[in-house]
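Input sequence (277 aa), recorded before submission:
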Amino acid sequence: IPTRDQGRMLGRCLKSLYRVTDYKNFEVVLVDHETAESKALKVIKEFESNENFQIIDFSGPFNFSAMMNSAATVAKGQILILLNNDTEIIDSGWLNELVSQVSRPEVGIVGPLLLFGDYTIQHAGIHPDTKGLMRHGHKHLSSESSGYFNRLKAVHEVAAVTGACLAIKKSTWVDLGGMNEDLAVAYNDVDLCLKARDSGLRVLFTPFARLLHHESASRGIDESIERNRRLQDEIRIIKHEWGSFLDNDPAYSPNLSFDGGGFKLNKNPANNFKTIF
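Predicted structure, token format:
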């Protein structure tokens, strides 16, 4: 769990993790990015006495990939769960579900259903988008929606899942070389998923693990010129690395519009169909 200040949010994340999760054999590695806020320091002190809780320090510019690589190095478990500090556990069986799916030998990475605070969908898999590289599908639909062809009621393959909550075997993490630290903020999770798929492993989304995600509450939205420049640099990196493979989505037909997961028919479909009378 990477964190910096935002004590109220961090407290909500950690308290829900310990109180709600029904499987208790887990370890928390908190990556502290120069926290100075008194509330956050108080929350960290409250939890640091737990036997299954350790803190590692990170300094310098925000780099999610570097933070996760450092945490993975010291983590003792066989399964790694990347978890944002702006998440909140609402489903007691979420950890059992993620671990049971990612433990399958053919599976590389698994992501859950993430919901906004109003219980509409924030993440249900990531899909290609010609305008912005990749976006979350089914976004803002009701949490009870069945989705496109009932896919929100079934575990299925997707192009990628978000690093806000992501499960991966530690052995797979090591084999893939962890996260690309040149992708400090954006697309590091997509890059990791593409590496898994490129190696022959499946990336799954499961609707049977649900969390709240108070999106980008600690880091904010990319609005400044500096942040936009950084984002464009990271887009160039991932496009150079993966090229046309970015458009290869096992959960998204090429006959659908590449609007980032809206599942609308493409006005110019990739395949031609012959009508038979």
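Checked by second reader. Residues 99 and 167 are 7 Å apart (CA to CA).
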